[in-house]
């Protein structure tokens, strides 16, 4: 699956985590608390708190395979802790352990509302810390609170993308820019709104731009097939632009694209040129 590209900037998650971090630090008697988001290749710290010693900055990234977070996420219990990273057999030889120079460490898996892995919620300290079952339970509860905030951020992002961005260029010509994840609800709205627009405006050509599309669980959205078919039946010429390389590399996607009766061009300017329009400064 491609690296996380969700439109959400997780502003609510950051705001809430900042308020929780001080509580977590006091409760567990640790210097640092942070939330790291999992990408396809790396873990990235998106919010952090450092009480006395500056250890983990926001934006700090570690490759997934070389991160402590991998050990948390791959653990069946969704937790990893040690009183000393430098002597713990799973972490003592890791580059990031030497880089951070901390000892006490506790991390739990952070999931979204639907149970999908978002990343991790972790704490650490320069001194040795013996974390109890109570401590682990507390941090898991904090992670559960944050999961609802992740859901809120994602919902806000999806609402922003729910509208169908049709850009009229000239009579008979419009551009449909598909952005973000396209779930079932959004698919129906895209299909209905686009076909309705095409009929009301006597469209002759439609350019569908896919440069900002994000696949949900690597599934190519069926709405594209239905949309192109519907426009074709209406006698409307369809062109697709902005196909990202990661999308074209997927065999299932190539199969879908091959079956569509449409023309593929590099970008919107090329599509306009093919129709007979030119962009001028």
UniProtKB/TrEMBL annotation:
Limits of the STAS domain: 163-281
Domain of life, per lineage: Bacteria
Coiled-coil regions listed in the entry: none
Protein's UniProt name: Anti-anti-sigma factor
Gene3D superfamilies xref list: 3.30.450.40, STAS domain
């Amino acid at each position: 699956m491609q690296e996380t590209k969700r439109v959400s900037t997780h502003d609510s998650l950051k705001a809430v985590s900042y308020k929780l971090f001080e509580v977590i630090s006091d409760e567990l008697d640790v210097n640092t608390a942070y939330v790291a988001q999992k990408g396809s290749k790396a873990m990235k710290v998106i919010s952090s708190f450092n009480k006395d010693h500056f250890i983990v900055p926001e934006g700090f990234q570690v490759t997934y395979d070389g991160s402590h977070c991998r050990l948390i996420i791959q653990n069946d219990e969704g937790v990893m802790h040690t009183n000393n990273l430098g002597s713990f057999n799973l972490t003592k030889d890791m580059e990031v352990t030497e880089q951070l120079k901390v000892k006490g460490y506790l991390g739990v898996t952070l999931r979204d509302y639907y149970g999908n892995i978002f990343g991790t919620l972790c704490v650490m300290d320069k001194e040795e810390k013996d974390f109890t079952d109570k401590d682990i339970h507390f941090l898991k509860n904090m992670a559960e609170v944050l999961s609802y905030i992740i859901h809120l951020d994602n919902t806000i992002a999806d609402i922003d993308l729910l509208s169908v961005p049709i850009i009229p260029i000239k009579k008979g010509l419009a551009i449909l820019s598909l952005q973000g994840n396209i779930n079932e609800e959004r698919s129906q709205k895209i299909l209905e709104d686009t076909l309705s627009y095409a009929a009301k405006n006597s469209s002759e050509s439609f350019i569908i731009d896919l440069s900002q599309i994000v696949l949900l669980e690597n599934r190519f959205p069926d709405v594209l097939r239905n949309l192109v078919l519907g426009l074709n039946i209406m006698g409307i010429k369809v062109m697709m632009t902005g196909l990202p390389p990661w999308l074209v590399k997927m065999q299932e996607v190539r199969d879908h694209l091959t079956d569509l009766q449409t023309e593929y061009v590099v970008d919107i300017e090329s599509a306009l040129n093919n129709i007979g329009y030119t962009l001028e400064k």
